[in-house]
Amino acid sequence: MKIEQVLDEIRQFLHIETPDAWIDEALKQQDVLLIDHANCEKKAATTAMNLLYKHIDRDDLLKKMSQLAREELLHFEQVVNIMQERGIRYRAVSSSRYASGLRDAVRKGGEHELIDVLIVGAFIEARSCERFAKLAPFLDDKLARFYRSLLRSEGRHYQDYLALAQQYSAVDITDRVAAFRQLENELIASPDPEFRFHSGVPSAA
Ligand SMILES: [Fe+2]
Ligand SMILES: [Fe+2]
User: Fold this and answer.
1) How far apart, in whole angstroms, are the C-alpha atoms of residue 193 and residue 19?
2) Ligand nearest to the CA of 157
3) Residue among 164, 154, 167 at smallest CA distance from 124
4) Model's pTM, two decimal places?
5) Closest ligand to 154 CA?
6) CA of 112 to the centre of ligand 1 (A)
């Protein structure tokens, strides 16, 4: 599938686009962008690993999440390499409200929790892709090339998560996806004092 086609589907899935003000801020804070991006890759691998530990009886999930964890760790390594080339020191950066905001809406326990975690994973993956694509034209050649290469690798992650969510759900997940979409869109479109890879509209601190 062509990358433009994948991106169209991602944009339809997300409903709203990253605000231009976020792009402006990302270009001003490229060190924080890369550090937080590295953290996101690490966390994506961790999420996949946690699911591997919790759901040993679900064959498709085990295969997909194992593959995903490896890919995300490879991305992590690639981001760290770029940071080193640019002399950006890897330091502790607090996580954004985005992932925790989504995770707070996850129902606790059993199947419901699994379905919600998978849907949240889909949104985080999709938003990451949308941001890679929207940022790329403004970045230097090397970073632009890297972000476009990530798009090819990440482009199907959100669909993997969504497919697993529907597979393991006893009911149609459309309503649940819509509820998370509404929350996701609020987190993206509302003022956010802290710039991060998944932050909202930059507000003057
Ligand atoms: Fe990744
Ligand atoms: Fe991913």
Assistant:
1) 15
2) 2
3) 154
4) 0.97
5) 2
6) 25
